Each structure stands twice: as structure tokens, then as C-alpha cells.
Amino acid sequence: MSGDSDANASEPDICEAKILFRQLKPFPVIDETNGNKIDTRHFIEASNQIIDAMGCFGKLFSPVVKDMRQNVQKVADKFKQNESLFMYLEDLILKDASGNDVPFDTVTDGLLWLKRAFEMLEMFFRNMLADETCSEQVKPHLREAYEVCLLPYHGFLAQKAFQLLHLYLPSRSSLLGTPETNADNLTALKEFLVLFRANLTHLNDFYTKHDLHRTYKA
Predict the structure, then answer these.
(1) Up-side HSE of residue 43: CA atoms within 13 Å toward CB?
(2) Using CA atoms in the order 167, 191, 26, 205, what is the torsion angle rounded to 10 degrees?
(3) Helix and strand tally (H, E) in the chain?
(4) pTM score of the predicted model
(5) Which end of the chain has a smaller Cβ tally under 10 Å, C or N?
């Protein structure tokens, strides 16, 4: 009995990851077979899954999660108006339900804010992977991502809200698991970020091409 107790005591604690990237739907592939466009339904499904995963950041992040989910819902609601016409995200942005050109609307604006939030999230995870020290303290990674991706568009109140959320960010092991026991999760994260980044870069280029960027502060 005592031998078993000693053996168990010597085993390292296993910290299971809260976000299992292997289980998340990857963002759509952008290739020539679909005219270099983003499949709308696929984008919506992948967006909702990564937003669901953000729930593990803690209850204080609920307003952020809610805001992102509302912006995805704007896209989803417009998609349901005409799923054949809006099969691709680019067509959904540029056309109304009858196929007429729409230079800018609330859906375009919502997707713009969603893209910015996703860019912060992608940079946050990319910074974590690039941290060779594997520090448990990941707040600097989120702060850097926020300053690059969202701070330029946030007013005083939004900045203060982020500062509060930033204080309660979980540790690296809590989010991703330890490198020793969750190596596959880290590999899955690297793979997930490839298409995530490709979609964000594509949307950025699309918004620039059609002069859809807006720089007002929230």
C-alpha cells in the first residue's frame, strides 16, 4: 500500500488543456477552385467554434465573447436571406439579398470588427507558440496582440475594459496544457493558425481592395 502511494506521489501533475484545437473546425481553405473566395457557411461554423472555445478565458470575457458572437450572427442572418447568392463571404459583403451592390452595411461593419478581434486572438496564440520559455504568464502576449490589433480602434472606455479583462487571463498550461502532456494540442494549434491567418489576411486584402476599412473608435 505504501509503495503505491509513493509511486503516485512521484508522478507529475497533468494539466489538461481547456482548448482542444484538434476538435475545432478549421477555417476554410482559400483556393482557385472556388475563385479564391471564402465559403460562408464554413466560415460561420469555424468562427462559432473558436468563439465557443474562448469561454474558457473566464466569465469576465463574456462581453467580448458576446460581441464576437453577435457579429457572426449578423453574417449568418444575411446568409440565410439567400444562401445560394451568398455562398461566398465576398459576395455576401458586396451584394444585398437581390444581388444589388452594397458598398457598406451593418454586416460589413460587424465582420470588420470580428476580423480585428480574430486578428488579436490569432496573434495571441502565435505569440504563445513563439515563446521559447513557455512562460505560464501569457498576459504580455495578449497585451501586445491587443495593442496591435484593437487598441487603434478603441476609445477610453473600451481600453479600460480590456485592462480589467487582461488581469484575469488564465495561465498558459490552463489554456493549452503543458508541453510534456499536451504536445499534440500544440501541434494542432500550429495547424489551426495556418488557415486562420490565411482567412484573416484574405479578408484584410479584400476590405482594402474595396475600400471597406473604417477607422472610427468604439
Answers:
(1) 29
(2) 80
(3) 9, 0
(4) 0.88
(5) N
